[in-house]
Amino acid sequence: MKHPYRILLWAILALLHGRTFATVIKVHPAAGSIQGAIRQARPGDTVLLSKGIYKEHDIYVDKRVVILGEQYPVVDGQGRHQLFIITADSAVIQGLQVQNTGISSLVDMAAIRVQEAGYVKVAHNRLLNNTYGIYLQKSHHCTVVNNQLQAQAVDEQNSGNGIHAWKSGHLRIQGNHITGHRDGIYFEFVTQSDISDNISVSNVRYGLHFMFSNDDAYTRNTFSGNGAGVAVMFSKRVTMHGNVFKDNWGDAAYGLLLKEISDGTIAGNLFVKNTVAIYMEGAARLEVKRNTFTGNGWAMRMQASCSNGLFTENNFTGNSFDVATNGTMMLNTFRGNYWDKYDGYDLDRDGTGDVPYYPVSVYAVITEKIPAAMILYRSFLTNIMDQVEKVMPSIIPDQLKDDAPRIKKWKL
Amino acid sequence: MKTIIKYVLLDLLKNKIILVYTLILAVLAVSVLNLDGNPSKGLLSLLNITLLFVPIITILFATIYFFNSIEFTELLLSQPINRKSVLLAEYTGVAVSLSAAYAAGIGIPLLLLVSGTASLILVISGLLLTLIFSSLALLIFVLCRDKTRGIGAAIITALFFSLLFDGLLIGLIYSFGEYPIEKMVLGAITLNPIDLARVLMLLQLDVAVLMGYSGALFKKFLGSAAGSIFAVSCLLCWMIVPLLLSVRVFNRKNL
């Protein structure tokens, strides 16, 4: 602040001639290149791309510029190259169609890569047929909103993730539509981030995948038709609210896969028609509340390694099996859930049943041991076995029970 | 042959048991489907009714009817009609009226209240079971000389298929659980028409469950069109083979 009056003067000038500070540099596909325009630009400028096809690659965005597309100009990697590499803080990429990065076994080919930068915004882009769509590494406070990502991945080896974040923090990923990638959204060592209102459909592996990512939240997303809906592994304090897990159907398909996680909350989610709605292994201190499980093969497969979980106020309707487990030990609490298979009574009319409900059926135990026995499911014999077990429990884990099952469904 | 079928049908209509059977099935179907807001649960209850009651009622009723009309049969055989057409006509009469009862009692309410493939499959398997167990009843009729023994055999047959067979199968699965037994289990299932019908239906209702892990084989085989065709043709075999056998036995039988 050597010359405060001069700064003031500049500021007034800037107000009079907006262009002094933020110039708009127009690029046309026939004349000039994006990289050239960026080189020419000063921080704060806008690079405006006209409609057309740009066959450029490895475009370094190393200045604080806004790259803006008019009617979705196409930036094409021709199946061989990476496209944008952003290394500057506060850069913006908006309204482009970025496509065809190609596949490489040496580099993770990304359409838009954000590298050690902060406050970058990637919004309203179409990313088609890329190995990795948006790749954030060692970045923070970035926003990825309203992008459309589409790829045609066939197997896990030769494909990449839609939105891939690694060693980052404070990200906001919102309103994206991701389909046909390996994982829709992938988080590894990402903290304090927020994933909301995304739609992740038909990805080869997971709709959303957490690894070693703590203190994150994902809300109001829809995951359907993926290999598995969401996998949360080795993470702490992840909040999962109001999501929809749908049609994750098939061999070893899950709505939500939890492995070695702790202190999370799963609340207000809807699980419809998944082979296994929630599969949990080594999950500790989870709170599972006010979720709806309907029409699933197994509502929950809970390995005996889970502990101190609280399952309450959930609705279980129309699931083939409510809960399956692989052991007899049970260190979790089920309380006040609604189970449509409950046939107890409520003499004092307080809304909770007077006899406990055992959510693990005999047949769930038997098929857990011998899967081939599934062929006899729903035969008259197995009905008899169920009834016998209700009178005299001997096979089912008798510690796994809901002591206060609801008589009426929760309104969720 | 047509005339005989007509007489059998008229006789059964006069009998009124078929009407009562239809009515009971209809009441069950409507009440079960209206009882619960969840249609798939109602469908399951109807599946249980179909698998449990249809076989035993069909086989008992048909056996008793064949034995009761033995005089009529003998009278017909004194006429210049061959044995085969008499027997088949009697079978057709009984099977058609029982199937009609099932179709009217369960089929119509089901398809009206819960229409869909699952309902259609349930009705088809119920009808097939009716045809199969009437044909088994016919076999029992030609094999047993007196009524008491025949009814006993009918009860045992029905119990065997609805309960005992599954018990044996689960015993088998338990003792050989360590081995890859899926194919064998799949083969064993074809030996029981009730199981075939149940599995056919299960694939409509609980695909998810059957799809997990080792269920994959069942799903792969039975879930495909070829598998369903296989199951249905096995069921048809269960109808045709006893029928042919009984014609054979009846032709040689010394009346």
Tell me briefly what this model is.
The complex is a heterodimer of chains A (about 400) and B (about 260). Chain A has about 400 residues and is mostly beta strands.
Describe the fold and architecture.
The complex is a heterodimer of chains A (412) and B (255). By secondary structure, chain A is mainly beta. Chain A has a domain at 243-360 and 397-412. Chain A contains four helices and 39 strands. Chain B has one domain (2-252). The A-B interface holds A 249-252, 273-276, 295-298, 317-318, 320-321, 340, 369-383 and B 38, 40-41, 44, 47-48, 51-52, 162-163, 166-167, 169-170, 173-174, 177, 181-182, 185-186, 189, 194-195, 198-199, 202, 206-216, 218. Chain A: This is Nitrous oxidase accessory protein.
The major β-sheet of chain A equals: 14 strands, parallel
Unreliable residue runs of chain A: none
Strand residues, percent of chain A? 35-45%
- N-end to C-end Cα span of chain A: 59 Å
Q: Return the average pLDDT of chain A rounded to an integer.
A: 89
In the predicted model, the low-confidence regions of chain B spanning at least 5 consecutive residues are: none
Strand content of chain B: under 5%
State the helical fraction of chain B.
over 70%
Secondary structural class of chain B = mainly alpha
Total discrete domains of chain B: 1
Name the helicity range of chain A. Answer: under 10%
End-to-end separation of chain B: 20 Å
Structural class of chain A: mainly beta
Total number of helical segments of chain A? 4
Greatest contact between two chains: A-B, 32 and 39 residues
Number of beta-strand segments of chain A? 39
Computed CA radius of gyration of chain A, to the nearest angstrom: 26 Å
Radius of gyration of chain B: 19 Å
- The oligomeric state of the chains shown is heterodimer
